[in-house]
Design brief:
Elements (H helix, E strand, L loop, with lengths): L2 H15 L4 H18 L9 H13 L4 H20 L26 H14 L5 H16 L3 H5 L6 E2 L4 E5 L5 E5 L2 H19 L7 H4 L13 H11 L1 H4 L6 H14 L4 H8 L4 H4 L1 H17 L4
Helix pairs in contact: 1-2, 3-4, 5-6, 6-8, 6-12, 12-15
Amino acid sequence: MRISAAASAYGEHLSRVRRLSEHTVRAYLSDLADLSDAAGDIDLAEVDIDTLRDWIWRASERGDARSTLARRTATARGFFAWATERGMLGADPALRLASPKKGRTLPRVATADALAGVLDALRAGAANGDPILLRDHAVLEVLYASGIRVSELCGLDVDDVDDGRRTARVTGKGDRERIVPVGGPAFAALQAYLVRGRPVLAARAPERPISEAAALFLGARGGRLGPRAVYAVVAERVAPALGAETAGPHTLRHSAATHLLDGGADLRAVQEILGHASLGTTQIYTHVSGERLAAAYRQAHPRA
């Protein structure tokens, strides 16, 4: 079986058996398509460690980031391990494929004061009842209060919000559900949007699929709000406050995690809120907090 045919079967395995997201499966298949092109779509049995090393070397020569090289190495390992388990190969050629070390980059974090200014200004602007402003205010408040991913935000339905407990039920990676807290200001913004904003937006699309009719956040035409629209809202509202050319929803997720740790939250509690499968993923925020502490020390201490 050639690489391309095996990759197609692997994609089905990732989607149906491992139940990975469409975005993740697409990334894996993109890596394997690149491998197939580089190797000439040869038979799987012809792939050896030198084939794989040459593929990674070519990617490095054309300037691919170390994170991309590491991801492609992981893709190859997973793919060939699966192919070997299925009996497509007698031996796994990727066992000795070394992964390049990824350079650690700290996430962009907004200060609490900067975000408070953005959210306060948006709340004041939404006081006139504009449905889009009410929605945008609620979107930013919920993203910052809960630290959820943009896909999780867009997937929220009205019934996922528990008014009594001020929590939301979100579905994260691998279809794993978790409950996240929604703070007082975010809950107030949500209530204002649900009472004065959402009904106006919903009326713009009276005939909608059931999946969209239940959506918590709606777009300008009444359908379920999509990730691209959320990115646009964050870029317009938050980026200027950061002095950055652009900013995405993950900026609010990073900021929420860092501010929680700065405030003394337990690392495992933050892991649970963010929905990280590994504590190691959450630990990057301890480095962010450490950097902020070190910067404050250098600025304030006379003998720093």
